[in-house]
Amino acid sequence: MPVAFSLRKAIAGASLALAAAACQSNTETTETAAATAAASPLTAGTWRGVLATQGQEIPFLFDVATDNGQPTVTLRNGEERLKLDEIATAGDSTTIKLGVFDAALVVRAAGKGKLTGAWVKYDAGKPYRVPLTAEKQGAEKPIAGAYKMMPLLGVSGTWNVTFTDDEGHSYPAVGVFEEEKRDNPPIEPRANNLTGTFLTTTGDYRYLSGNTTDDKLMMTTFDGSHGFLFTAKKQPDGTLKGDFYSGLSGHETWTATLDPKAKLPDANALTGMKPGQKKLDFKFPGIEGGTISPTDAKYKGKVVVVQMLGSWCPNCMDETNFLAPWYEQNKQRGVEIIGLGYERASDDEATAKRKLTKMKQRLNVGYDLALAGTADKDAAGKTLPQIQKVLAFPTTIFIDKKGEVRQIHTGFSGPGTGQYYEQEKADFNKTIDQLLAE
After folding, report:
1. Class of CATH domain 157-258
2. Whose CA is closest to 319, among 273, 272, 367?
3. Element at 420 (helix H, strand E)
4. Phi/psi of residue 141, nearest 5 degrees
5. Is the separation of the CB atoms in 255 and 161 below 8 Å?
6. What range does the record give for the signal peptide (predicted)?
């Protein structure tokens, strides 16, 4: 059965706002000093960056351009384009803040058309750096003489996937891949294009792209918060077996079997309210002052959506990019949204509020946001003790006009998942329509 959607045609526009945001870090020091008159090593064109981690290379492409006299960087992730416009040069270093995330690329010139530096994660449990090199790309040249087209590996379709961490714990996923031959004229390297993603019960791995060669595949993504590398070898029985590398030290193995009927457990049935509980009871500080509670007069008699999120979370940003414009178009119908922010444990309250405020401004969030706790699922569950368990960020809670919780949805399938994203939006609207009709 052919795969039921084209990832290359997936709607990437919803993610563009992700790139417009930026958050300050109180851990940034000389790397974010005020820009000086020093010349930036960034020159217009397409660059190929490589993150070196765990003995592996995670390649990614980015474009450098000029906007109103200032340099901009646009990360490429499949069809997604993430524009970064907070760039400062001080001395011989240039710092490129990575969108809404508390991270940056810090680079300096390493010869003509070359950069060296690091991907710096300020908000990790312990801030870390991943070495980075980049080289400006020239025009590709067709291969001279005879050329034999690389045959397809045959991985297009839907796959039943199991990931296993280094401690032996496993979790299910659905892989959706699309493989195609490279455009003519033939260009080195001899490989076929591959796009896709993985869906899990806690969210998706967003836009992945790479290639297939011989009996192997490789896909990567770098969105500022995550640097992922997926490799696999096709086995004689047609299954896939490979490795998943994440950031500085994350590693899992994965196996996959082609299965057009592969699907995950129902996201609306993974958690629920504890026995005897029907309503949420919380009061958290709003990021603009005061407190926010579902019992406030503003929400009485309305359908209310409670979004559990974090500014550090790419899947949460995908959901916010959907919810923010949706709210502006639908709030007059008698529906409200409350965003509950769960920020990194190392953040003090002022820092956490600042990050959420920046996110609110840059993503044009018109609904209320509150600071609810830290980015730990067990700790988050304690802030909402009426819920059985918090399994993921984001988690979306639907409350009816009587103030009773009617549905808890775990995770979010974002625009990188194609048809699954369209179904996610359709299911959201169906639930809201049903609750408003009551």
Report:
1. mainly beta
2. 367
3. helix 419-437
4. -115, 135
5. yes
6. 1-19
